[in-house]
Amino acid sequence: MTYAILGIGTALPPNSVEQSKAAEYARSLICESEDQAALLPVLYRQTGVRRRYMVYNQHVLEEVVTTGTTSVSSVFIPRDRNDRGPTTLQRMERYMQEAPTLACQAASEALERAEVLPREITHLITVSCTGFSAPGFDIALIKRLGLPATTQRVHVGFMGCHGALNGLRVARGIAAAEPDSRILLCAVELCSLHFHYGWDPKKVVANALFADGAAAVVGAPVPEGQSQPWRMAASGSCLIPDSEYAMTWNIGNHGFEMTLSTRVPTLIGENLRPFLDSWLGRQGLRVEDIRSWAVHPGGPRILSCVEEPLGLTPEQTNVSREVLADHGNMSSPTVLFILQRLREREAPLPCVALGFGPGLVAEAALFV
Question: At the topology level of CATH, where does 231-367 sit?
Fold first, then answer.
């Protein structure tokens, strides 16, 4: 048996903001000098993002920009320049208010597209790195969607932007072991809840890139040799040597704190091709044999550092750029948004999906 994708669903919060407006909001919330205020729009433009969706209410943010204050009482609006925003507890409370609804929207769409009934689901895999709670949004999915009480659960937590690829690996393993399984995977991230208040250039880049969203996949085992497209033939992982410092994601007193080294693109560029040559070689393939690419767009430089060593053209990663421009970096759901667009456009196979996260680790999945 091999694992095949039957349907993908996505969901976004109702609030969206153009990147130029997001820079205005950020200037009101974090800039401490005129020099910082002048640099901020440049950093936001360089992301390649046009619009992002987030659980913040943009009307409240607009009031802060235009009046310097707001009539709405919110812990997410700082009281003064020394205010570093809500505590981690307050951010987690908002996560549990918002995450289940978004996850259920994506999962419902995936079930509908897959033509699978909720009662047929046997396994549930959830993915998130922006919130923790028990019981979590996995229980909300079971109750709100009407999944069986016997649904077996696995949670992939705190693995960053490649978390959905780790979840797909789990789904593939379940499919190999359980020939009658129907597997729902759901990734949801509310990155905006971890907005960093105060000036820190490395954290400002994260503020400018990340957004909120959810995506879900329904999959099932299919017999080897069956002509079902979008079968996951292999998965791979590569821990890049001596790179722990390059990307970190830690729990602080005022949310989860990300650091991104300027060396991340270089580290990926130096190590990706040898890893893929070896991994694809074990599948009887070469990089040149891959006809579609679903590359997680951590940012424009990440896409460039993937294209150059692999000999890819910008057209071959165009869908990744589209998703980045339309939605920002939503962390783990992002690669599923890309896969959905590729499937809708009947992109040629084989396809390789790539994601990068703390470690520094590259994760890969091969679809045929």
Answer: Peroxisomal Thiolase; Chain A, domain 1 (3.40.47)
